[in-house]
TrEMBL record:
It comes from Pseudoduganella ginsengisoli. The gene is trmB. GO terms for cellular component: tRNA methyltransferase complex. Its EC number is 2.1.1.33. The keyword S-adenosyl-L-methionine applies. This is tRNA (guanine-N(7)-)-methyltransferase. CDD domains: AdoMet_MTases. Belongs to the class I-like SAM-binding methyltransferase superfamily. TrmB family. InterPro entries: SAM-dependent_MTases_sf, tRNA_(Gua-N-7)_MeTrfase_Trmb, tRNA_methyltr_TrmB_bact. Residues 140-145 are annotated as: Interaction with RNA. Substrate binds at residues 138, 170, 205-208. Keywords: Methyltransferase, S-adenosyl-L-methionine, Transferase, tRNA processing. GO terms for molecular function: tRNA (guanine(46)-N7)-methyltransferase activity. The lineage of its organism: Bacteria, Pseudomonadati, Pseudomonadota, Betaproteobacteria, Burkholderiales. Pathway: tRNA modification; N(7)-methylguanine-tRNA biosynthesis. Transmembrane segments: none annotated.
Length: 226
C-alpha cells in the first residue's frame, strides 16, 4: 500500500542550498560510491546491500549525521539506513563513515516518503528513528509536520512485529502532538507512561546540550509494534 495522504502531498521539508566543505565534497567522491544507495522504485535487498543478514533500522532526516554515526558505531550487530535530502548532511555523514570505518551504514539521498513507499518492504524494519524533525512551529505550518496519523500508520506497516519507533523533539507542542498521534495508532504500544526516558543509545547533540543548559526540554517517545 502506498502512502498518499493527499493528491498534492505537502512536503515536511524544505530543500535548502548549502555550501559543501572540502571534506564533505571529498567524502561524497570517495565514500559515496560504496555507501550511497541510489533511489529506486523497487524493494531494497538488505542482505545484498550490507553483505549480511542483520536487523535493519531506518533513520529519517539525519541532519549532519553525528547521532547516526554514533549509534551505528555503538551497535555493530545492526544495520542502519539513513535518509536525508540535504547534500551537506550526506557529505558530513559519509565523512564520518570514512573516519570511523563504519560498514553497517548506508545512505539514501531522497524524500523519505517515497523511499518508504517503494524501497522498504512491509514488516521488514527492526526500528525507525526520527530525531528532531522540523517542528514547523508556526501554527499555520503545523500541517507540514511529519508525525501525523497517516504517515505513522505507514511506518507501522514497515515495522516487523516487535519493531520500534523512536521519535525525539525539543518543541513541547510537537511532543504533545507526537504523543497524541502515536498513542492513537492502534498498531503501536507505548513503552512508557507518556514520554520515555532518553534511551542510552541516543547521544546528546551539541545543540541539545546547549538547550538543556538554558532550561529547554527534550522529549523522547518510544513505541513498539504490537
Amino acid at each position: 500500500m502506498l502512502y498518499d495522504p493527499t493528491e498534492h502531498r505537502i512536503r515536511s521539508f524544505v530543500t535548502r542550498a548549502g555550501r559543501l566543505s572540502t571534506g564533505q565534497a571529498r567524502a561524497l567522491e570517495e565514500q559515496g560510491p560504496k555507501f550511497l544507495v541510489e533511489y529506486n522504485k523497487a524493494p531494497l535487498d538488505y542482505e545484498q546491500t550490507f553483505g549480511r543478514k542483520a536487523p535493519v533500522i531506518l533513520e529519517i532526516g539525519f541532519g549532519m549525521g553525528g547521532t547516526t554515526a554514533h549509534i551505528a558505531a555503538a551497535m555493530p550487530e545492526k544495520d542502519f539506513i539513513g535518509v536525508e535530502v540535504h547534500t551537506p548532511g550526506v557529505g558530513s555523514l559519509l565523512k564520518l563513515i570514512g573516519e570511523q570505518n563504519l560498514s553497517n551504514l548506508r545512505i539514501i539521498q531522497h524524500d523519505a516518503v517515497e523511499v518508504l513507499n517503494f524501497m522498504i518492504a512491509d514488516h521488514s524494519l527492526a526500528g525507525v528513528h526520527i530525531f528532531f524533525p522540523d517542528p514547523w512551529h508556526k501554527a499555520r505550518h503545523n500541517k507540514r509536520r511529519l508525525i501525523q496519523a497517516p504517515f505513522v500508520k505507514h511506518l507501522v506497516q514497515k515495522l516487523a512485529p516487535g519493531g520500534y519507533l523512536h521519535c525525539a523533539t525539543d518543541w513541547e507542542d510537537y511532543a504533545v502532538q507526537m504523543l497524541e498521534v502515536l498513542g492513537a495508532e492502534e498498531g503501536l504500544q507505548n513503552t512508557a507512561d507518556g514520554y520515555a526516558p532518553q534511551p542510552a543509545y541516543r547521544p546528546l547533540t551539541k545543540f541539545e546540550n546547549r538547550g538543556l543548559k538554558l532550561g529547554h526540554g527534550v522529549w523522547d517517545l518510544v513505541f513498539t509494534k504490537k
